[in-house]
Amino acid sequence: MLLASDVARILIADDEAPARARLRDLLDECRESFALAIVDEARNGREVLEVLNREKIDIVLLDIRMPEIDGMEAARHIAGMAEPPAIIFTTAFDSYAIKAFEVNAIDYLLKPIRVERLLLALGKTRAAPPISRQALDAASNLPRRHLSVHERGKIILVPVADVLYLRAELKYVTVRTAEREHLVEESLTHLEEEFAESFVRIHRNCLVARSAIAGFERNAEESESGWVVVIKGTGEKLPVSRRQHSVVKQFR
Amino acid sequence: MAKLGIVASINQTGAGIRLPNFCNLGVMLRSLLIVNVLLAASAAIRAPSLDAIWFEFLVFAAFGEPVLIVSLVALCYARRWLHAMGYVGALAALAVFEMLVAWLLYEASGSLLFDRRPMSFAQVMFLVFFVTAVTLAYFDLRARALSPAIAEARIQALQARIRPHFLYNSINAVLSLIRSEPRRAERALEDLADLFRVLMADNRTLAPIASEVQLARQYLALESLRLGERLKVTWRTDTMPADALVPPLVLQPLVENAVYHGIEPSDAGGEIEIDIGLAGGQLVMELKNPFPGGGRHSAGNRMAIVNIRERLQLHFDVEASMRSEVKDGTYKVTIRIPYISKAA
């Protein structure tokens, strides 16, 4: 959290150049009453996370609708950071997001933004705690396109499309891709809900990407249901639990 | 066929709405269907057995089909006089005309086609009168059912058009220009004003394609203000007849869709291609844009398509068509409209 005396280090994120220019103008006007420095600009969610990996940022002015990784998804990755910057969402018009923000008590600025309103939002970041991951998840209507791995204060993105399976281990979830394994701090139940379309539960502790299933094999020794899932590419075999036995039929 | 479309759209707004436009292909097909169904029903009633229905129907059809076709062609040419008579006058004239055609054919068939007449003259007259009345009543009912839709078409055109998203983003872009590039800001506000002038206008009557193209260009100028080099547009309008009449706001919503779904979701942007030309007496508009897939912003995108399809149907019935397809990462939408112009 920022102290009143600190100079707030700000990142502007918007895919439209005029919108970024406008925010720069407005922030310049705020300088008199709010100590700030514009550190960098980003044109999409991926660039936002790149800047955060590089620079210390206190406040992100985050446009919701951006290409590739949108503001909503970027915010969800940011919320997983150990010391996340404050996020101020900006949007021209997005009836879904606005409704969701109201419900989840997330502050946002409507474009065109007034300088008074911006100053108010900047001031709030001094006092308010960062937006919680739960609130952001609840406000999102789309599954993320990436999972974020937080390693030594850096955010590494793993495209969900590359994930073969997710396996719960104590308080972490192992994310398996063709190349390697990552650890993420998420709950398997939440992941199952979010990615219900692309993943299927085969065991109490395991979700498999539907596209990664090469087939099923009988294997009474390793599996209580008598079946294992064979993973495409790696050839790994994961046991199917008795409760999830119906999955086998669904795919055969 | 050309001039009839105009009448169709004028009819839909004026008092002549209750009389169908007999030159419209849709009206012709519907008339054919109604008359043949009635003939089949009459045949079924007259036939002594189930097997004989087909023969009876053929006898009816041999007489009924020529009457129908002669009537449709004649009514198509006479529609201006009919409209000038008012609805009741036109009905009376129609009834007399149909009887006359039937009488002529009845006389002709007596001497040429049949060795015995299947029905008496009075029966034939009754049948012709009855079929004519049912057909006209159907078109009257249909017009009444659709007329609120026509009034609504204008409102729909407004509602479905211009995403608020675009309006606020454009205003935001203009605001950012005011300090640094006041001239560009002025130009942008002028474009915005023109765009909204068309949106607020009475959009029930057809407009020349040239003004639709102008509108789409102004819209794209505003979008390129926001999107910069991400937005590339290629126009091919060499064979476009500038005077061709189209429903207002038929092009701009499609262009807006292309920007929203094809360009904005992509970091690198992309190209929108617009081809407008004549092909086989039809005005063909084709619009292509990249389709990044993922369907992230798919919600509500069908609105514009549905709205345009409805309005095409209201103005042209079955003579216009609209198709969209996704192929090799490209979204393509094609609209075909009969080529009509004020001069014709």
Describe the structure.
The complex is a heterodimer of chains A (252) and B (344). In chain A, a hairpin with a 2-residue loop joins strand 8 (163-169) and strand 9. In chain A, the strands form 4 sheets. Chain A has a 5-stranded parallel beta sheet with strand order 2-1-3-4-5, sandwiched between helices. In chain A, strands 10-9-8-12-11 form a 5-stranded antiparallel beta sheet, with no helix packed on it. A 3-stranded antiparallel beta sheet of chain A has the order 13-14-15, with no helix packed on it. Chain A contains 8 helices and 15 strands. By secondary structure, chain A is an alpha/beta fold. Chain B has 344 residues and is α+β, with helices and mostly antiparallel strands. Helix content of chain B is 63%, strand content 13%. Chain B is built from 9 helices and 7 strands, in the order ααααααβαββαββαββ. Chain A binds chain B through residues 15-19, 21-22, 25, 43-44, 65, 67-68, 70, 92-94, 96, 110-113, 142, 145, and chain B through 163-165, 167-169, 171-173, 175-177, 179-180, 225-228, 264-267, 294, 296-297, 299.
